[in-house]
Task: structure prediction
Amino acid sequence: MTNKLSVLTLLMVAAMMAVGTQVIAKAETSPHVTFNKDILPILQENCQSCHRPGQVAPMSLLTYQDARPWAKAMKQKVVERQMPPWNADPKYGRFANDRSLKQSDIDAIAAWVDQGALEGDAKEKPAPVDWPEGGWIIKPDIIVNGPETKVPAHTKNNVIEWTSYVMPSGITKDTWITSIEVKPSEIAVTHHICVSFVPHRPDVVYNRPVWRDVQRDENGVEIKQPKAKPQKPSASANVSTTGDGGGGECYLPGTQPMDYRPLHAGKLIPAGTDVLFQVHYTPNGKTDVVDRPQLGLTVAKQEPERKYITYSAHGFQDHEHFAITPNDPNWEAPKGIVTFLQDAQLVWMSPHMHLRGKDMTYTVQYPDGRSEILLNVAHYDFNWQLGYVPAQPVRVPKGAKLVVTGHFDNSAYNRFNPDPNQTVYYGDMVWEEMFGGRIGIIVEKESDPKKVFKDE
Result:
């Protein structure tokens, strides 16, 4: 009996040793995940548009030397799906510019870090991306210099009012443009910069700042004046006065340039057109800086097939309708509703709120009674105001309605909330609030942008 047990024991030990040898052999032959072979291609495709010099991200990820100090942070951010930022609910729609990582990419980054964040063979790394010079994302054919604006380190209540400047475009003949990029030089203090194209006036004074004097209380909140009627912007207020639909092209945190080239669309800019820059800055509390923004444009090699129009759907903005109650974690915003007066294709959506923004949903109600959710941003992030490009343009027929709904979190659970005990009204400053469902559409070239939408 004892001999039988001894033999059985020996057989079991031998089997375990064999399995262990196989595991060791497999571990020894298993390839390591390296930066050059496995990680750099992921960063080039999904991260480097922001993570490079001159862009909004705080560090560069162009090279191994750039990325290695941030390896553990990279793993944490991608495992928690905080990076790359992408807030669209995957249950609704597919998007051409979806930067969210595949699970296999997340696993690769995690394994790279766990294995020691090795650099790997230089022969295995892909060629560097040929990014445009000067910090551009597009490679502009035309560059328009914006106004130089001194942003002081400190102001009363941290307020710098929105300021507008008219600048010459330098465009001397009717020109179809196919993409637009607004590029500030001082990203850290830039709340937003928006541009629109306006007809040249003989009495125009270039580079002269114009702003609205606003009465504010001790907290910097605007003291609204009584209005006879509820305040809601009209459709015509959201398009450029040139008739090209050029209003609303903006730099906001996390935004990407407006690129119409894949859609065979453009905007017609008449000869002599000027550019209206609307700028808004926030003091950094440390030092004075001077922002020198630029506007980059690409020009069509041949006349585009269709016209691109931008618009923003708002609800009411007056105190009666827009007053976010204190400590409310789910205050519902007044709906933004617009009716399409002609057939169009919706090709871009970008929610805009401030620090208390919680969620926003875009829904199309079709004339036949059907309803379709095009975009649901369930966790809005003011720091990354992304644009969402449908994988295929959404055909919106004449008579359809776009309904934009959303909520605000004015509670203490919102870690960005400056003061949950405050009633919050519509206003320009970041501690006030906004609600706008920005969209881009394409229509026939002959369309008048001012006759495409009707506000409800």
